[in-house]
Structures are given as C-alpha cells and as structure tokens.
Amino acid sequence: MPKNKRLHENDKSVSFFDMVYQVVALIPRGKVTSYGAIAKYLGAARSSRMVGWALNGLNKTQHNLPAHRVVNRQGLLTGKAHFRGIPMEQLLREEGVDIVDNQIQNLSQIYWDPNDALQVD
DNA sequence: TACTTGACAAAAG
DNA sequence: CCTTTTGCCAAGT
C-alpha cells in the first residue's frame, strides 16, 4: 500500500502538504515553530524543505494560516522575503515576539513544538 | 522524461 | 568553528 502520496486528484489520500497546513493552523498566537519540528511531527524529520515548499504554495492563493509563525531552527525569519503585504517580522512583533535583525531573541520562550503541544504518545 | 530548484536541517570533514 | 554534502518530496523548466 502506497504512502501518503497523491496519485490522482480523485485520490483521497492526504498529501504531505495538507498535513503541513493542518499543523501550521494549530500554532498558537505569539508562538513560533520550526520547519524541522513540523516535518518531524509528520514523521519525516528530514523533509523540512518540503514544509517551506508547502508554505510557498500558500502565496498563490488566499489562506488563513499563520505562516509567519514558522521560522527556521535558529529562529531566523528566512521566509520573510516571500511574504506579501505585511512583513512577518511585524506580524510577530504584534504578537509580542522580540525580534532583532530578523532573529527571534526569546526563541526558547515562545517556541512551540507540535510534538509536545499535540502530545504525541 | 530528465535535470534543477527550493521558506531547512543534520551529519560529516 | 566553519564549510560541504546529503536527504527529503514536489513543482517548474
């Protein structure tokens, strides 16, 4: 049996992308997480690139996902350039995140790990 | 159909 | 400590 791979549009299997969207939607306000943490939660710890790729697709169409709460492992706002409209740095600051030079200062304090928050057995 | 690129991360040298 | 390589999966060329 194939994995979660969309073979066809009719296939009801959930793709990696879709799962990324679900996790991102669960990120609490004022918190952030990393691409790797999401990937790990999805069972693909080394697919962090795909997480970013998935979010990239959000720029095409409208979405209500807090993509600005997803940063890299260092707490660096790498995807900043891909944001349209309001910069993610500003969005995060409005949520109380302390950022200096695209770098989250209190990362360890506001870090939200889906593996912990969603309490994986 | 094959090769390259991409919002990253961990391991190796 | 810094640089290079590898892995992951999808989409564009």
- How are helices and strands ordered from N to C? HEHHEHEEHH
Give the low-confidence spans. 1-10
Number of strands: 4
Please give the count of helices. Answer: 6
Structural class: mainly alpha
Number of domains: 1
Q: What is the CATH level 1 assignment? A: Mainly Alpha
Arithmetic mean pLDDT: 87
- As a whole number of angstroms, the C-alpha radius of gyration is 15 Å
Task: Describe the structure concisely.
By secondary structure, the chain is mainly alpha-helical.
Provide structural commentary.
There is one protein chain. This protein has 121 residues and is mainly alpha-helical. It has a single domain (16-115), classed as Arc Repressor Mutant, subunit A. It has 6 helices and 4 strands. It has a two-stranded parallel ribbon with strand order 1-2. A two-stranded antiparallel ribbon has the order 3-4. Strand 3 (99-100) and strand 4 form a beta hairpin. It is globular and about 35 Å long. The protein binds a DNA duplex (13 and 13 nucleotides) through helix 2, helix 3 and strand 2.
